[in-house]
Write a structure and sequence with these properties.
Number of strands: 14
Strand order of the largest sheet: 6-5-8-12-11
Largest sheet: 5 strands, mixed
CATH topology of the largest domain: Uracil-DNA Glycosylase, subunit E
Number of helices: 14
Strand content: 5-15%
Shape: globular
Radius of gyration: 22 Å
Helix content: 25-40%
């Protein structure tokens, strides 16, 4: 990295252009309307998105990506707006580090090994797997365009939908739109929502799936992440190498824990990330008794489970974690049932998801809070008890928010591809139809108006 002034930031991406072209999607797979016709424009687009998500303001039109003559490298240059110089310098350090061979490069190794393994790579190639995404295609796709300097949490998910790569936008989708609603109702200011959108997938492969059209989970078994993206012996240690950097940004250096880690997925929807987490960190997890007794306990990775793990054996800090539902699960599988307190009941889904968002918020307020205390506080807020069991019975103002979220998740317009009701309309339904109970499954509010 080198700078010509405090506000101008310049640095090279690691490796030559051929290496970086494997990390960024080629222009040919991106929607033509975006006019990202060269690798330089693709890199500039994702870099601009990442800077924006990080809240780092740059001078308009100052971001440039060029091919450095004589080196074969891509060169990035931008000018920070006043007050953002330090953040820009940090970005210039972390961006190339995440893309070097010891981090993102591990994903290339894993993907190429997967492609070379008979039957492992895209077993449904050329055939449709749902009614939305056309013929099945796979392609390596990293979490580009994310915050990486000022973020306040990291979320571990399964894999990115192919449409995210086509739209060159990892964060503008139904999953993340719903997550923003949850963050806001959990008390996180709208100006900081993107700081909770630092996502890492255990399988960094774009494939069909966009919330409504989930690609069957069986095609991405837990073993695939363990073999191809968590295999240190064969130089495929992508997941943990990336987590080590993302969970330890410079702004968190003085805190006793790393940033909190949310692990998204449940037995009812997209269980792969918690499944990988359970396999990798079994010695850190609580256990259930076995039958017959006396055997080693069964490691658990249940929704709303919280604790602390060490990402690598030599990691300096423990990482507080919580297992959560996938952010879109309530919108896909949630419904009104006769058994509130157990998913897929929509009331339980909403309360569990709000607990997860509140868990993360507490670490922004108090980075030293014990994970069990953070969980207990969040459960009291959204369930009305210490452990999040039974039907949610929070305070009336919280139940009102839970009700409105449920109305948006229960009623979806497949033509407009958005919830039927706006937030204001959902609140109004809860105010007028529930007779003060704020039960989203009451007789009248359980039907669309």
């Amino acid at each position: 990295m080198n700078t010509t002034s405090a506000s101008v930031v310049e640095y090279d991406l690691p490796g030559d252009a051929r290496y970086q072209d494997k990390l960024y999607p080629p222009p040919s797979v991106i929607a033509p309307a975006l006019n990202l016709t060269t690798p330089e424009l693709v890199i500039a687009h994702f870099t601009a998105s990442s800077l924006k998500a990080d809240g780092i303001q740059v001078v308009p039109d100052s971001l440039q990506v060029s091919s450095r003559d004589g080196t074969g490298r891509y060169h990035i240059r931008f000018e920070c707006a006043p007050g953002f110089e330090s953040a820009g310098q940090l970005y210039a350090t972390i961006h190339p580090r995440l893309l070097d061979e010891a981090h993102a490069g591990q994903a290339i190794n894993g993907a190429e090994a997967c492609q070379a393994t008979p039957g492992a790579w895209n077993p449904m190639a050329g055939f449709p797997v749902n009614n939305h995404d056309g013929r099945c295609e796979w392609r390596l796709f990293l979490p580009l365009g994310m915050p990486m300097v000022n973020h306040k949490a990291v979320t571990l998910l399964h894999y990115p939908p192919y449409v995210a790569m086509q739209n060159a936008d990892y964060l503008n989708n139904m999953t993340l739109q719903r997550w923003q609603r949850l963050l806001e109702q959990a008390g996180i200011d709208a100006s900081e929502h993107f700081l909770y959108d630092c996502i890492l997938d255990v399988n960094p492969i774009a494939a069909p799936g966009s919330g409504q059209s989930e690609y069957n989970n069986d095609y991405f078994p837990i073993m695939m992440a363990s073999v191809f993206f968590d295999n240190e012996r064969d130089n495929r240690n992508y997941i943990r190498s990336m987590l080590e950097v993302l969970l330890n940004p410079p702004h968190n250096e003085a805190n006793p824990y790393t940033l909190p880690l949310l692990v998204g997925g449940s037995p009812l929807y997209d269980p792969q990330a918690p499944g990988w987490f359970r396999v990798r960190y079994k010695e850190f997890l609580p256990t259930a008794p076995t039958n017959p007794p006396g055997n080693q306990g069964i490691p658990l990775a249940n929704v709303m489970q919280a604790g602390a793990i060490r990402i690598n054996p030599d990691s300096k800090k423990l990482t507080p974690y919580m297992i959560a539902n996938h952010m879109i699960a309530a919108g896909v599988t949630g419904r009104c049932t006769a058994t509130p307190g157990v998913i897929p009941d929509i009331r339980t889904y909403e309360a569990q998801d709000l607990v997860a968002a509140s868990f993360l918020r507490q670490y922004a307020d108090n980075p030293a809070i014990d994970p069990s205390d953070a969980k207990r506080n969040a459960c009291r807020e959204w369930f009305g008890n210490d452990d999040g069991t039974g039907a949610p019975q929070p305070a009336p103002d919280k139940m009102r928010l839970l009700c409105a979220l449920a109305q948006m998740d229960l009623f979806f317009d497949p033509v407009k591809v958005q919830p039927v009701y706006t937030w204001e309309q959902a609140l109004q339904r809860c105010d007028t139809l529930t007779k003060g109970t704020y039960d989203p499954c009451c007789t009248t509010c359980g039907k669309p108006s």
